Amino acid sequence: MTRLAPTELINELAGPLADWLPKQRWFAGKDREIRAVRPVRATELVGDADPGLVHAVLAVEQDGGGRTGAEDLYQVLVGRTQRLPEHLAGTEIGTVAGETCYSAVHDGDLGTTLLDLIAADRDVAGVRFRPEPDAQLYPGLRSRPAGVEQSNTSLIFGHRYILKLYRRLHPGPSRDLELHRALHRVGCQHIAAPLGSIDCELRGEPVVLGVLQEYLSNAVDGWAMANTSVRDLMAEGDLHADEVGGDFAAEAYRLGEAVAAVHEDLRRALGGEEGDRDRLDAAVDRMHRRLDRVLVAVPELAPYEPALRRAFDAVRSVPLPLRLQQIHGDLHLGQVMRTNTAWVLIDFEGEPAAEVAERSTLRSPLRDIAGMLRSIDYAAHQILVGDEVPHQLEVRAAEWTERNRRAFCDGYAAAGVDPREKATLLRALELDKAVYEVGYEHANRPEWLAVPLAAVARMTAGEECA
Ligand SMILES: Nc1ncnc2c1ncn2[C@@H]1O[C@H](COP(=O)(O)OP(=O)(O)O)[C@@H](O)[C@H]1O
Ligand SMILES: O=P(O)(O)O[C@H]1O[C@H](CO)[C@@H](O[C@H]2O[C@H](CO)[C@@H](O)[C@H](O)[C@H]2O)[C@H](O)[C@H]1O
Question: Domain 220-462 in CATH: superfamily?
């Protein structure tokens, strides 16, 4: 079988890729016209069989959004075949030189190739497939794509492994992999064990393309669990949060303990330092800048601006010392999973809004706590969005939130320092997160904008507003 060489294939496929990319959930530049798609590198992983498999890194040039000429890097896996099986029909990208090209992450047999290459510790033309030193891998398992595709694409292998393939690539070390490795080294019980990785060099720098992890096959994510509890409560409008079957407080307590343990493990593994007044001021300045940006996009936030700025400025005079260290950076209920035995934190990529280089700056652990407290508030209040809400249910939502936020802080305090002791900083961090959420919901889920806006209103109630 004579085939186009991989780079030639991707060059020929550039037009169809430009149509296909914006339809993918993980494609970050949906709002800007694509000017060009070029292969930065293309590697044949399966060449002598049908289907074949090509690994490619694309440079996608887009205009608009004030970033004219900006180029982003994306990872794609392209399957190529003479005859696309019916079950893969929806995955087609285009046809080139008589072969149908399709998104290979949907092909369970091609997924096996990735696992087998990691297990065999192979290099293929500069793409390095590595097992972690202590990993015992069983090759040969077929893959299936994880149901939820978000910023990246994850493949699940039986009940054993999950391989996260990063889509938008950022040359340089992967925070997600580095922190998982560091936590695993100190025996952290609240992460999924890292088992392998895929990387290559791009523009002279290493870039992590994928991370293989232990698959938590019996786990439920925290958002789903909290929602079940809230629904149970709402269905029983006359009962209090501690009287209904689905009470979440014991889980919120355990979650607090788990987050404290991960913070302690991060300190043991990677150290920390004491923040000074300058660092505190820089953090406050970042809060103000974020508020400036979000106010432009969402004028509904304007009435709360004076109270928000006061809450941020209050941080300038909080007593030192302030402990800084590596933290999760993007902690919310969707980033934690409950297995039969423990809460596990996933996805240590860091704060989505921050530049990649900035994400590894040492931060206050209170930032993670603020993220989780906001998430508990979200779980109770998003369920009421859009309906004429009976007062009774609003009271129930407030009770649920209060009960579970308290339980979470109690759990954290039992295993570490009580976050409520630093109330001024915690309040400012929560408000900063809520401002971020206002921007996020406005851009992504406008129907949920009311959730963080109402939270800002509640948290600043009683204060003089604009
Ligand atoms: N180790 C794991 N075991 C089981 N499911 C997982 C694991 N890691 C992630 N997931 C599932 O995959 C989803 C996406 O994972 P995540 O790392 O957050 O990827 P993304 O960067 O695309 O958001 C999670 O919400 C969770 O449902
Ligand atoms: O999933 P990511 O880590 O990329 O985070 C983004 O999406 C989150 C929504 O999935 C968003 O989280 C917000 O909504 C959650 C409920 O869906 C809630 O639990 C969080 O508290 C709230 O911040 C997150 O802000 C955004 O960065």
Answer: Aminoglycoside phosphotransferase (APH), C-terminal lobe (3.90.1200.10)
